Amino acid sequence: MATVYRQMYTRPLPKSAETFTRKGVEYAKWTDGRGRKHQERVIVPDKGKYAGQMRLLLETSMYYADLRDEHGHLHTVSTECTHEGNALEFVRNWNLRIERIKLGSISADEYAVADHQGTPLTAHFQAYDEHLRVHVNRKTGFVASDRHRRNRRDHLNRVATDLGWTKLAHLKREQLEKWLAEQAAKKMGPRTRNTYALSWSAFCGWCVDTHRLAVNPFTRLGKANEQADQRRQRRALSPDDLAKLIDAAQRRPLAEYGRETVSVARADGEKPKRSSWTYKPITPENITDCERRARERFKDRPDLIADLQTEGRQRGLFYKTLLLTGLRLGEARSLTVGAATLEGDSPFVALAAADEKARRGAEILLRADLAKDLSRELAKRLAVQQRAAERVGQPVPMALSADAPLLQVPSDAGRVLNKDLAAAGIPKKDDRDKTFDVHSFRRTFNTLLAEAGIPLTTRQILMRHAAETITDRHYTDRDLIDSRAALDLLPSLPLDRHETEQQAAVKEGTTNGPINPASTEPRVRACERDLLTRPLTPLIEKPCTDVVSDGFPSSDDAESDSFPSADSDELCELVGSGGETFPRGLEPLTFSSGG
Predict the structure, then answer these.
(1) Which of 6, 175, 469, 564 shows the smallest number of beta carbons within 10 Å?
(2) Which of 256, 407, 404 is nearest to 320 (CA)?
(3) Number of helices and strands (H, E) in the chain?
């Protein structure tokens, strides 16, 4: 049987220690803060980081032993015992375990699982959190974010507290399923319930990998149907509503200082105070009057008026960028001036992998008018910095810092958007109970591309989705797509033989009689055909007014490779051979944030 012993270690001498020599051995004595006297041996190491320094020579309170595992490898193991008899019992159990493993009656992993059964569950949570902090995800190549780790901790601690779980042996699948069912009865959404189930399944999977559990009790745990009970259903806005929103966003910062006050009802005898009145909200009906009163109020402070107008212009540019790029809020915040290439034929902005949701990185294409708006805004910001430097006598910068944010994103973007929606007269929720929030700009981006006839594969690339089903199922507002106009593009199939013969005669050019427009070949918008065949930059290209009767553009259009300007007012209509017009689809958004 192996012997047990206490390990020796050193530590610095206390400041109040006095040294003396007894029988050729040097000692130190001192009194600690509790008044207890101590006396320990002193040594001076001749090598190592403490070489030449006087240090106390101490021994551990725990006993250690040199033991061999089932492979014959020698290990120094702490017995975690302060009494020698208990330490010797630990050694006997160790040797008995090794013999059983060699005989094959039990595996080392099973012993490891047994050792962890008595460990408090909170200790396992702490070890798992440390694992998430340093573990590199094999798909993304990044460690877990602080928000992800916090959510996992919250999920684990809440369930363990509610169910009274304190050890791994307490984990029961049926108890977690019952808890999830109770939360569903309390109106917890299916997506939230699924995140709780996922957190526990991932935690137990890690416990299996680290030999803390033999099996994962939550493997193949049932998943709630998120589509059947979707708590937040987002909608897309029409081009008209988008124009109203951006206009209101540019005007509201100044209009906020011209709002009228309105009294709030108070109890009888209550003295007037700040809570007894409030400001009227800004609406499309009063925003012009609010702007006028604000200009009158600040007529002696033109610099403040200019600052408020700048804030509005930057907010409108922020909304326009989200709409024409499909960026997420966090991604938009991460963009810097140095990452933007706004000159040339193909402007874009580079999105770093660390800032993208999928952690792949991407080059976000910018439409020409958006790149122009961004360049104009950066030039104005540079001019402001140059004037400020001249006033204080500092060196005048020649360019903005590459690390400066590209967009001025409000810190509370959700609350600001809600007020802008109200100022534009757009309800937060529509009659379908669908809401519009910051992430809905991304849904609008995809919906307008779909309405313009952009193929699903192209939209998937622009949306940076891994699968087409995500683009089509979650980011397309089908209520904004004109499905009836698409039906009108299908060929006519008359049941009357006379009508069929008349159509054949039309094709051969031998008829002299009147032609029914509904019986001609399918009408195709030339602009939609261009969208399917031309490059992705700009994203939405050529409007037209061509009359198309045979499904093909004229020879002049086929040879032309020019595009109308962003300020063009041309309309793209469906025109039949009889001269009638049909409703046009959603056209490219060419509104500018203004100067």
Answers:
(1) 469
(2) 407
(3) 19, 13
